[in-house]
Specification:
This protein is mostly helical. The protein has three helices and no strands.
């Protein structure tokens, strides 16, 4: 597959807001459509995996939010 020659946008407040929003949407979908699905809950391995994915998305959401909502920079405070 050939690499795209598109110029990459420099992430700004809008990009961070969009990433925060999408992390929230996907996290909600994972919770409602996977974690809470009867087939997933009936299988301990699947349940554990779905919960880990949900937690990872929550951690991503928190990390983006820390930067986006605190100071709008690209690095969390103290980094």
């Amino acid at each position: 597959m050939a690499k795209s020659k598109k110029r990459r946008a420099v992430p700004d407040e809008f990009h961070r807001h969009e990433a925060l929003h999408m992390a929230s949407v996907i996290m909600t979908l994972v919770e409602t459509e996977l974690v809470e699905a009867e087939a997933i809950k009936a299988n301990p391995d699947w349940s554990r995996r779905a919960s880990e994915i949900h937690l990872s998305l929550f951690d991503l959401y928190q990390a983006i939010g820390e930067v986006h909502l605190d100071d709008g920079g690209d690095e969390p405070k103290g980094a």
